[in-house]
Amino acid sequence: FPSHDTGTRDGKSLFAWSEIWPDAKIEGFDLIEPNEKTSEKFKIHIGTSMDSEFTSVALADSYDVIIDDGGHHWKEQLATFYNLYDKTNKYYVIEDIRGGYCLGRIIRELPPEVLKNASVFHSEMDLGKVNFVFTDNIENRTCHFIMIFDKTKNK
To answer: What pTM value is reported for the model?
Structure first.
């Protein structure tokens, strides 16, 4: 299945996704050219996911999974969401939402019909180990959140 990751940097996340989904066609976005090892295995689009003109040209296809791990400011995450959400068939993930305030801003900006298919998880630190648990408490401003939109629920 096709998947896409924003904010690929040195490609470590792309290699991790390829281990989890070995048969997936994985692409990515970043602002810098990838290293040789990354560029040999994955197609990397050089540009920003916040630029709607760039994303409409770079991503002509649709994807089963899109993971936003690019800009970590809530405004960047919203811009990327609006540029890429319609390009996914199944799951859209916003990774690394920094704190309850940012999560709240994202929730207030998204349409209710999109939010009804969203799940939110947050990191709990326990002796250096990170556990991700479902949450309904967005007031915890010290943890990081992951928001998953499941488009398969619409079908």
So the answer is: 0.81
